[in-house]
Amino acid sequence: xxxxxxxxxxxxxxxxxxxxxxxxxxxxxxxxxxxxxxxxxxxxxxxxxxxxxxxxxxxxxxxxxxxxxxxxxxxxxxxxxxxxxxxxxxxxxxxxx
Length: 97
Fold this sequence. Notes:
The protein is α+β, with helices and mostly antiparallel strands. The protein is 20% helix and 28% strand.
């Protein structure tokens, strides 16, 4: 059975240069999830603060996104597979908007 992961991101704004400020990933089958705030390293646009309630002060002691990548990959991939074959089930990432 394919693994289905729903995820949601909050960002500093809507421009291509904007950065992630928060993420949540939920495994649909197990209801396990990971979530964290992320140091954006650029100021959060005032409109983004209005929408998310996340401020620059909330993130000042958090780690930048590159520190979270391995955690997200470990959560999203099947680390419990003890099968030595190359047959892997697909992983569907489903974005929330």
